[in-house]
Amino acid sequence: MAKIKDPIKVYDARWEVSEFNDQEVQRLFEASLGYARMIGADTLVLTRDARLGCARVMEIGIKVATEAGFRVFSCFDPISTPLSYFATMQISVTFPQTMGLTVTASHNPKQYIGIKFTVPTVEAIGYDCGPLGGLKKVKELYHQKDFVLEKLDGGSLTILKNPVDEYIEYTFQLAGVKTGGLQGLSVILDTFNGSAGPELYRALVKAGVEVFPLRLVPNGEFPTGSPNPTSQNKMNPAIELARQQNADLIIGIDGDGDRIVFGDQKGIFSAGFVTIPILKSILSEDRSTSIRRVLYDPKVNPMALLKWAELDAEPVLFRNGHSQIKAFMKQTGAVAGAEESGHFYHRLPLGDMDVSGENSLYTILLFLKSVHENKAIISEIRTLQDEIYTSGEFNFEFADDTIRDHAMNALISLFESDHAKLTTHSENGDDLEGTVVYKGVDHQNGKISLSDDWYAAYVRTATNEKGVVRSYISSCSIEAGEKLRGKIEQLLKEKFQGKEIE
Q1: DSSP-derived 3-state class of residue 348
Q2: I need a labelling partner for 254 at 20 to 30 A (CA). Which of 230, 261, 341, 397 fits?
Q3: What's the pTM?
Q4: Taking the CB of residue 152, how many other CB atoms lie within 10 A of it?
């Protein structure tokens, strides 16, 4: 039986450009707008990044939406995903029942294309996340043979001016940064030929930062490969340039501008440590709230969480997943969130709205603001980074899912025999989609303490590949971390004939 093609993924729609024809892309828009109509949306903001497949997809979307009677606002310039969210926020002030569709494929290779979704009011959705199940309902409509999107009169198209100037002004005010206010800092900015380059370069120069750009011009060909700064060795050119220019920091941004890495002349920092100065900036301001909850994913290392708690933040474990984290932020009133993959989340007010989402410029300005006030923060983060061990994700592939499951069970037994604490659900009962492991980590009532021999791990089976176990560990020292990783690799290789893969 032929496999049914499906563009809907866990967090968005995504496919290779050659995989779907125009009729299938049209069907995706029909399903998306049918869903929009079901939840009461009457307005659409449609934006794009610099990917080569964006123009075709966007043109199809505009045609489907206007013929269906939607009020459409579209920016034709290639812009970042955070800027697209801001454009949707702006339109939502006047038209609250607005859906946002961003044509992008994030950090994937050039042959991919996709769509990210928000629903009123600028709330990210995913599969089984959002009104009526979010993308689960879109998928149902996509495959429902008798579903037809009704064409209605009254559709319109307004072409938006690129809102980058308003975005920069809004973000400067939100971060408490003035023109020239960050003078004295020098940064290597590597934007991987993605769409965020021009807006971030302009903003940082406006803030007074000395910027040395790399891969700045948006180019959907992505001539140096996948635009993902978190991939191994991808930031090496920026690190080398930082040494040559004696720059204070390096910043790397992915293809659509919502994934960020920071570092210095020695290498990149973990997102957990980067969050420390960001939280200093956020929590020092009067937010007229006593809630200091900050979400973190299972890969954030416990030493970083300890430092968060020392700032009187309340670290709260939550599962991986951009849409799900943002939804839980909104539900709980959390002030921020961080994933080790380089995603940072904030509360973003505009008008009567309070949106939980990404604004990469805001993240960067908060980080640089703290560093500008005290440059010693850079060396403090470097000391923390060098003190502990973090593995990055390492993966093993097995002959089939049965062997994979046996290998995973043996790995869990390895941790249990070491008297580690294991959990598969967050405190509120959400499935963490893997097993979180803590040894020597005590986390109670927002307070964290670490023993001298602590370690943490997150292990799971891959959702999109057969026979794969993914592992990530952090520990009190490089020696201890490498020893633990060695035990895991020996178990998976020798007993279950696992093959290490990227």
Answers
A1: strand
A2: 397
A3: 0.95
A4: 11
